[in-house]
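Convert to structure. Protein one:
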Amino acid sequence: MSTARRKAHRTAEDRILLAVTVIAWLLYLLSSLLLSWSIYHILANDHMVRQSAKDAVHEMSGWPTVKRTEMFQAALEYNNRLEQRFGSSIPADMRNEDGQPLELLDSEYINMGGNTIATLNIPSISVTVPIYHTTLDTVLDKGAGHMYGTALPAGQEGTSSVIAAHSGGVQGLLFSRLVELRQGAYFYVNIYGTTHAYQVDATTTVLPDQVEQALQEEKAKARTATSATAKKTDDPSDMHTQIPAPDKSGTARVSMVTCTPIGVNTHRLIISGHRVGTPSPAPAADSVKDTRLQALIWALVVLVIAITAAVIFHIIRKHSNIKTAKGRHHA
């Protein structure tokens, strides 16, 4: 091959290599921008969700005692009529003949409480979310939703409430870390300015069409526990109307539901717990630390320090080598 042809061949190879390199860098830049955009929106939305929860707690805590008492009484009356209204079914996300969601047609339910029913706090995994009425898509895009047809999470004896939220979406972190909860972990529901603590005692993963059956089993657990407690009391007739004080344990149950695995969503993760007293045995919510997040932050700090130290060491060593080379040259 002549010299001219070899040069032309190398030039063509160089152009192809340059084009591949430019395309690779453009794809890398594009993917980095998309990843950054996703992370930004997740964190921004998560901040808004947390702020909404804080605003809800602040609003409900500011209600007069009379109003808070009235709201609890209304919740008790609503819960006591659930069996009569719905039997053993959970009509969440069901629609009438006109395609309208049944929960939106239930004015008593929709108007229960303020803009939010309650808030959920799981400090061990840094979850703080408002709980809105219904589990419709428009609701789950901004926080957690109360499953229509289950008891309002007022902490009432013998009741079983269900809270659902997304995982792994751009709506915020929400229930993305719910899978990290283990037996014995605590979570807290603030309703009408009162905080009730719960302790995780059951975790299950089911197919979507098995969710209702699993939740019915949770309802049965609450009833069984209430019956057992009623046998030990002097006046068991009022057990279904009682809401134990925050520092007392109870038989109320709360289940949290989300899709799993993240990004696949073929199953539903259900984590349930029963009421316990706070600050004992459940510690105050603000005293529970997210140890995994703290460990991650410290790991990142150590990594940044290590990288910085390595860069500084490299610069110093390079500068020293240059000075040594210059010294030899002058010698």
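Protein two, convert as well:
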Amino acid sequence: MDMSKKPLAVVKVGGDVLLGEAERQGISNNIYDLIEADWQVIVLHGGGPQTNRLQQQLGMTPNKVAGRRITSESDLIVVEQAICGEVNVALTQLLQDKAINAFGCNGASGKIIIAEKRPPRVVSGAGADAIDFGEVGDVTAINSKLLQGLLDLELVPVIATLGVEKNSGRVFNINADTTVVQIARAMQADLLLLTTAVGAIYKDLSSPETRIAKVNATEARQLIVDGIIQGGMIPKVEEALSVLKDGVKKIAIVGPQQSGAFISVARDEGTLGTLIDAGS
């Protein structure tokens, strides 16, 4: 079989999603469903809660300005330990336990994710002075050739969100939400899956029957204006919507704890999660 012809799903797994047993098992079960249905899969994960917990255990205080993490050199060591040493190994093991040949790595491995240091910038809600985010980078390129090579070997890349400077080995802390979009765009993914504890977009979070099964990009933007999509989900959806015009066919918001959620949105069944497409 020509491996390049298989559909590709890029999955974003937040560190918060991995805190519960049902969610952890759900991630591996749902990815297994995609593999069994002859999909290729790339997984990108963060590890914010795990980083915060390790910092606290070490007597360090997470430093955030307007909700954005400031990463000192000592903070970066903890980030590396948490997302590479804890989350990446645990997630790779979960998948291997399900007979999925996961390949644990990070963005610096083989320079999968190229980044440059984020310049100081003024941040909304943080005053008039430019903020230096420290060892934080912005993604400039994705090594799609290497990722495709891993996929062709029938591996599932499980990538911890670090970036590396193009002409050195300098490593940066990078944002998983923006990075997963860059990967989906570079790989021309058929499906971008954003996993959340809520598992879909709801008109009323307290009423499961108000789940929105499918919207197009224009309707999704209106849901932001109307306050249906709110809080931390707004930047995730806004960033993701940008790839629909660049060849990525569909975006889905799903809950990994829901059995069959990934394959359901992949098949456009409408029974779980929320599917977003470009529309007409």
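The first strand starts at residue 8 and ends at 13. Residues 52 and 62 are 6 Å apart (CA to CA).
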